[in-house]
């Protein structure tokens, strides 16, 4: 990539919406993040966020369809950030599911009150810098991780925006 | 995406070593193994070693919550020791760290 190049390089991957392919999704984004120079910890966080988004597709997206369906993953590689979109063409998220998944396990709760259900969206929000959930022909979870430079907080991206 | 499960049965305790990737694909195997141990008679303690776990997501958290509940119901002790750094991070950001009995360091 040349300096100040506004266009993203795009890497796309379509996988069957089956748990056995989750590892392939993680390996792919890990490879992309690695070549962008993210740290080991950041790469592991990105893998986890993408793993959660893909697991949601496998678990929820195609429940009501006979066809197993697909997971669509797009990695947009910018100079200063990686934007990963995980999408499906399934039934969409219910508000209940989103609310449930946005809650961590609070320390104050007793064990009996803990829910075995999803923490997926909560984790994605915690691990990534920006998250957007869109309803299109299914659900798209768009998550952004900024490349940290010289110890400067990565979400300070106004300078590179201005240069474009 | 390899999963490692080793179980050792002592007189009143089961020890389980987990390693590799715990995700929605490998989770059923992990859950089945742990549940089969928890429901065995004559056992009062289950310990799980997570040092070799390279990847774990919320699916794994769900399994541990389920097992811990089962252990409480059956009056059994559930302990985790030797977390890998990634598992410790996951336990901390989800809040499970404050709920789970963790023994660090020693294996005996």
UniProtKB/TrEMBL annotation, chain A:
Organism: Brevibacillus fortis
Keyword flag Magnesium: no
Family per record: Belongs to the anti-sigma-factor family.
Residues covered by the Histidine kinase/HSP90-like ATPase domain: 15-145
HAMAP family listed in its UniProt record: Anti_sigma_B
Domain of life according to the entry: Bacteria
Entry's Gene Ontology molecular function annotations: ATP binding; protein serine kinase activity; protein serine/threonine kinase activity; sigma factor antagonist activity
Keywords: ATP-binding, Kinase, Nucleotide-binding, Serine/threonine-protein kinase, Transferase
GN (gene name): rsbW
Protein name: Serine-protein kinase RsbW
InterPro entries cross-referenced by the UniProt entry: Anti-sigma-factor_SerPK, HATPase_C_sf, HATPase_dom, RsbW
Record-listed E.C. numbers: 2.7.11.1
PANTHER family, A to Z: ANTI-SIGMA-F FACTOR RSBW-RELATED (PTHR35526), SERINE-PROTEIN KINASE RSBW (PTHR35526:SF9)
UniProt keyword annotation of ATP-binding present: yes
Top enzyme class: transferase
Reaction catalysed by this enzyme: L-seryl-[protein] + ATP = O-phospho-L-seryl-[protein] + ADP + H(+); L-threonyl-[protein] + ATP = O-phospho-L-threonyl-[protein] + ADP + H(+)
Pfam families: HATPase_c_2 (PF13581)
Protein function: Negative regulator of sigma-B activity. Phosphorylates and inactivates its specific antagonist protein, RsbV. Upon phosphorylation of RsbV, RsbW is released and binds to sigma-B, thereby blocking its ability to form an RNA polymerase holoenzyme (E-sigma-B).
From TrEMBL, chain B:
Family: Belongs to the anti-sigma-factor antagonist family.
Natural source organism: Brevibacillus fortis
Gene Ontology molecular function, alphabetical: anti-sigma factor antagonist activity
InterPro entries: Anti-sigma_ant, STAS_dom, STAS_dom_sf
Keywords: Phosphoprotein
Protein name: Anti-sigma factor antagonist
Domain STAS residue range list: 16-108
Domain of life: Bacteria
Function: Positive regulator of sigma-B activity. Non-phosphorylated RsbV binds to RsbW, preventing its association with sigma-B. When phosphorylated, releases RsbW, which is then free to complex with and inactivate sigma-B.
PANTHER family, A to Z: ANTI-SIGMA FACTOR ANTAGONIST TM_1081-RELATED-RELATED (PTHR33495), ANTI-SIGMA-B FACTOR ANTAGONIST (PTHR33495:SF9)
């Amino acid at each position: 990539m040349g300096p100040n190049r506004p266009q993203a390089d795009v890497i796309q991957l379509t996988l069957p919406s089956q748990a056995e392919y989750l590892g392939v999704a993680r390996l792919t984004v890990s490879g992309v993040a690695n070549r962008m120079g993210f740290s080991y910890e950041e790469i592991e966080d990105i893998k986890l966020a993408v793993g959660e988004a893909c697991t949601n597709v496998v678990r929820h997206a195609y429940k009501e369809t006979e066809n197993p369906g697909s997971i669509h993953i797009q990695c947009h590689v910018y100079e200063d950030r990686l934007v990963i979109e995980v999408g499906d063409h399934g039934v969409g998220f219910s508000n209940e599911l989103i609310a449930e998944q946005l809650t961590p396990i609070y320390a104050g709760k007793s064990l009996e009150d803990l829910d075995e259900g999803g923490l997926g969206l909560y984790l994605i929000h915690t691990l990534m810098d920006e998250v957007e959930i869109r309803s299109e022909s299914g659900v798209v979870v768009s998550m952004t991780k900024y490349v940290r430079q010289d110890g400067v907080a990565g979400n300070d991206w106004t300078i590179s925006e201005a240069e474009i | 995406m390899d999963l490692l499960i080793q179980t050792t049965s002592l007189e009143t305790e089961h020890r389980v070593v987990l390693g590799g990737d715990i995700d929605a694909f490998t989770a059923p195997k992990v859950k089945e193994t742990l549940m089969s141990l928890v429901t065995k008679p004559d056992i009062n303690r289950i310990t799980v070693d997570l040092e070799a776990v390279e990847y774990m997501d919320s699916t794994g958290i769900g399994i541990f919550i389920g097992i811990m509940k089962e252990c409480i119901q059956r009056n059994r002790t559930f302990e985790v020791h030797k977390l890998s750094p990634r598992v410790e991070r996951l336990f901390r950001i989800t809040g499970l760290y404050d709920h789970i009995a963790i023994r660090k360091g020693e294996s005996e």
